[in-house]
Every structure is written in structure tokens, then in C-alpha cells.
Specification:
β11 and β12 form a beta hairpin. It contains 15 helices and 14 strands. By secondary structure, it is of the alpha/beta class. The structure holds 4'-deoxy-4'-aminopyridoxal-5'-phosphate. The site of 4'-deoxy-4'-aminopyridoxal-5'-phosphate has 17 residues, from α4.
Length: 428
């Protein structure tokens, strides 16, 4: 494939945007080469500035669960835009989407909309601290909860790709309140709680981790966290920015039957527009301003275009009883296809999959936490990534990311992908 125009656009961008990108993982730093510039996208396909067509397995890092330029979302946004793009005043549609989200997701009475997953997680932690009157939080190595200060301690995603576990600019004062646990290691969490008795406000976790590749929770792990939180007066925060409205209508809480105290959303909930949200039962949400003392705000929060996109997306998912089964079946089919050809070509690998989240790790050992995820062979991943790109398949440009399956993918697309993996594996 030719990427002449993309390369030229990147060179221009680098002059005026740090690293040429507005979010680091886009920059191909982990895999080398220059990023692809997108011209447009429809359904399962991206069309780049050099007129290449790519089958997209990132889908805007999750939001496009029903495909790009999904008609109901596009129409809702156009219609709203004609009536004004922002007012900074309440609108009816905010209540409509809130009612729908509260109906779809278990264990929440109220929801507050923000503009990104980062904002959602940052606000959820402040609310947990305000509610419990305690300062410390527990997060898991390899989990990413956005780029706010408290979370940039062994974060996954781009922070792992670049090997920068702690960002300069995060103060020691902030870092000392974030305790780090090993994913899937409940004993480690229990020990941290014991050593910090009555000081921990919340445990925040990706109920299925997606920022160190896809890492499922081990049987019983989430339930143990639930029990530890309940018996120690700690709030359990599920960061469902990836899993929300993806693993089930009610997200990971519904899929695993575990109740979180606060749930964070992003990605799918905005249908591709900048939306995040956090939600909880009344007792907790009523601590938020203007009802309570915990302050949180946003000029563009609940923006009409964003709400219109989100409402159209959630309505489509809510009205389709088969969509999550279809997504699961497609992902399983892809898993089987890829595993078969990798094995036939003697490529050492482990594939993790939950619902429509899947990732390929180039190591034989089980991938259960950040340490095991980091053992994957990055040189193999780089060759795999570029090989697939050359075949017109676009996966995330980092081994620490999940592939997001969209319902717009056909079984033919999935077969094309397995064939491409077969071809690429022969030269790995
Ligand atoms: N939480 C999780 C689980 C995420 O995957 C992400 C982004 N990938 C975030 C939070 C942050 O969301 P945003 O990029 O919208 O700020």
C-alpha cells in the first residue's frame, strides 16, 4: 500500500502539533513508521488520504460498535446541529439519554455527563473521596483510566507503549495517594487494604482490562473485590469506558453479575462524539454539586450534539436484542480463524477475548496482568502490525491495546482478516 499523502500530512502536522498527533497512541511510536491519515469511514472500513481501504479493528478505540457513519447517529447529529450547537443551559435530551442509561445499566439511579473518559474517572474518584472522607485509592498496574494525575501511575495504553510509567508533572503528593495492585491478584489487594486501614476511598478497575491488551478478570476476582470493598467501607468503581454498552446492555456489571458503587463510561455512550459519564445510586450521586459539596462541572457537558449521538447509539443498542450475541459470535469466529493460522505457522501466541474485545499476545504464557502482558514479543508485534497494514487491515499500533469488533464487520471481512494473518505469519 502507498502512504505518500499520509506521510506528507504527518510531516506538516509535526510542525504545529506535538508529535503530529492530538493523542500519543496515534503516533505509531511503538511500531515505527508514520500514522495513517483518515479521509472518511463507512461501516467496517476506513478510507485514508491515499485512497487505501482498510478493515478497521480499532473503531475509534471503541465507540463505533455499530460501524462508522452509522446512519441513525449521523442523522441525529445533523438534525440537532441545525438548532444550535451549545447553550450552556438544560435541554430535554439530557434527561432522555439519562433515563435510557439508567434503565439499561444495573445499580445506578443517576448519571452525570462529561466530555471524556478521563473526566468521568477523575470525577468518580473525587466523588468517592468526598463520599467516604478518605484520600487513598487503589488502581491496578496496566489499567488506564485517562490522563488525570492520580491515574498516571503504571497506567496502560500509551503510557505503557512508551515505557513511561510515571509522567513528569505528576507530583509526589498525588502519587502517594495512589496504591498499585496486581490485576487478578486479590490477595495483593487485601494486603494493601490491611496496610492502609481506614484510609482507602475506592478501588478503581477496568472490569475487563483493555489497556494492556485484553485481560479478563479471573473467576471470582471481581466478586472478591466487591466483598473486600463492602467489608472495608471502600467504594468499588468500575471503569466501563471500554466495556460499557459493549459487553452487554448493562456492561460488565450485567455480564459478570457484580454490582459496582460508581460506574464510569466513555466511548460507546457518545456514539463517536466526545462524551463520558459517571453514575451511581442516589446516596452517592446526591453528594455532587449542586445537590452536595463535591464539585464537578463542564461548559460543554451534556452538549446537544453529543447527547443526540449518544441517544441514537444507546437506542439502537437497546432495541436490538441480538446485537451483543452477534458481536460475540463474530469475535469468536475471528478468534478461531486467527488462532488456527498462527498455530499452523508455528507463531507463539496467546489470544485473550471477552465479548467483542480481543487481543493477540506474542508469548505462550497466559496473560493475566501487566507483567505477563509486557512479556509479549514486541518485535513480532511490530512485524505483525505492519504486515497486516500492508494487507489492508488496521489494528491498534501497540501491543498494549485491544481490538474492538464492530457489528458492521461481515464474515467475509473476518475471513479476509484470517487469510491476511496467515500470509503475514509466514514471515514472522
Ligand atoms: N478509561 C478507560 C478504560 C479507557 O480505555 C480510556 C481511554 N482509552 C479512558 C478511561 C480515558 O478516556 P478518554 O480517552 O476519553 O479520556
Amino acid at each position: 500500500m502507498i502512504y505518500k499523502r499520509s506521510s506528507a500530512l504527518f510531516a506538516e502536522a509535526e510542525k504545529v502539533i506535538p508529535g503530529g498527533v492530538n493523542s500519543p497512541v496515534r503516533a505509531f511510536k511503538g511500531v515505527g513508521g508514520t500514522p495513517i491519515f483518515v479521509k472518511e469511514a463507512k461501516g467496517a472500513y476506513l478510507y485514508d488520504e491515499d485512497d487505501n481501504r482498510l478493515i478497521d479493528y480499532i473503531n475509534s478505540w471503541g465507540p463505533m460498535i455499530l460501524g462508522h457513519a452509522f446512519e441513525p447517529v449521523v442523522n441525529a447529529v445533523i438534525e440537532k446541529a441545525r438548532k444550535g450547537t451549545s447553550f450552556g443551559m438544560p435541554t430535554e435530551i439530557e434527561t432522555e439519554i439519562a433515563e435510557l442509561a439508567v434503565a439499561m445499566v444495573p445499580n445506578i439511579d443517576k448519571i452525570r455527563f462529561v466530555n471524556s473518559g478521563t473526566e468521568a474517572c477523575m470525577s468518580a474518584v473525587r466523588l468517592a473521596r468526598g463520599f467516604t472522607g478518605k484520600d487513598k485509592i487503589i488502581k491496578f498496574a496496566g489499567c488506564y483510566h485517562g490522563h488525570s494525575d492520580s491515574f498516571l501511575i503504571q497506567a496502560g495504553s500509551g503510557a505503557s507503549t512508551f515505557g513511561v510509567p510515571n509522567s513528569p508533572g505528576v507530583t509526589q503528593g498525588t502519587a502517594k495517594d495512589t496504591l498499585l495492585a496486581r490485576y487478578n491478584d486479590a490477595e495483593h489487594v487485601a494486603a494493601l487494604i490491611e496496610a492502609n486501614k481506614d484510609e482507602i476511598a475506592c478501588i478503581i478497575i477496568e472490569p475487563v482490562a483493555g489497556n494492556m491488551g485484553c485481560v479478563p478478570p479471573k473467576e471470582g476476582f471481581l466478586q472478591t473485590l466487591r466483598d473486600l470493598c463492602t467489608s472495608n467501607d471502600i467504594l468499588l468503581i468500575f471503569d466501563e469506558v471500554m466495556t460499557g454498552f459493549r459487553l452487554a446492555k448493562g456492561g460488565a456489571q450485567a455480564r459478570f453479575g457484580i454490582a459496582a458503587d460508581i460506574v464510569c463510561f466513555g466511548k460507546v455512550i457518545g456514539g463517536g462524539l466526545p462524551v463520558g459519564a459517571f453514575a451511581a445510586r442516589n446516596e452517592i450521586m446526591n453528594h455532587l454539586a449542586p445537590l452536595g459539596p463535591v464539585y464537578q462541572a463542564g461548559t460543554l457537558s451534556g452538549n446537544p450534539l453529543a447527547m443526540a449521538a449518544g441517544l441514537a447509539m444507546l437506542t439502537s443498542l437497546n432495541n436490538d436484542d441480538e446485537v451483543f450475541n452477534r458481536l460475540e459470535e463474530k469475535t469468536k469466529y475471528l478468534h478461531t480463524g486467527i488462532a488456527k493460522v498462527l498455530t499452523e505457522n508455528n507463531v507463539t501466541h496467546t489470544i485473550n477475548r471477552v465479548g467483542s474485545m480481543i487481543s493477540v499476545h506474542f508469548d505462550a504464557a497466559e496473560v493475566v496482568d501487566f507483567e505477563s502482558a509486557a512479556k509479549g514479543n514486541n518485535d513480532t508485534f511490530k512485524a505483525f502490525f505492519h504486515g497486516l497494514l500492508n494487507e489492508g487491515i488496521y489494528i491498534a499500533p501497540s501491543a498494549f491495546e485491544t481490538w474492538f469488533i464492530t457489528d458492521a464487520l461481515t464474515y467475509e471481512d473476518l475471513d479476509v482478516t484470517s487469510k491476511a494473518v496467515d500470509k503475514v505469519s509466514k514471515s514472522l
